[in-house]
Amino acid sequence: MPIKYRISEDDCIGCEACIAVCPYEAITGPPFVVNAALCDGCGVCAEECGTGAISSYDTGSENESFGSGPTMGIGITLKNGG
User: Fold this and answer.
1) What is the pLDDT of residues 48-80, one digit of tens each?
2) What's the CATH number where 23 sits?
3) Which of 37, 30, 35 lies closest to 45 in space, CA to CA?
4) End-to-end CA distance of the chain
5) How far is C-alpha 77 from the geometric centre of its chain's CA atoms?
């Protein structure tokens, strides 16, 4: 299944390093989000992120775990508790 990336709002410090290195121009912000339609899953953004705010997920997983705290990616914001 294809791998995509998302940005944790809790961990992101807004340095924009991910925007600078993304070869697909898939990251915009603030608020910083990864556009899944543009993301190729290369992982360059996650490698560049100094805070670990960018994580990968399998787009084919029905039971995907987002961890704790709000996460931004694929154009949506997830909030704790609903």
Assistant:
1) 999 999 999 998 754 444 443 444 444 444 444
2) 3.30.70.20
3) 35
4) 27
5) 11
Instruction: Kindly give the pairing relationship between strand 76-78 and strand 71-73.
Output: antiparallel
Residues 6 or more apart whose CB falls under 8 angstroms from that of 29 comprise: 7, 14, 16, 19
Range(s) of the domain holding residue 43: 3-78
Helices and strands of the chain, counted as H and E runs: 2, 6
Q: Which of 57, 49, 56, 55 is nearest to 14 (CA)?
A: 49
3-state class (DSSP) for residue 13: coil
Q: How far is residue 28's CA from residue 7's CA, in Å, rounded to a whole number? A: 11
Reported pTM: 0.70
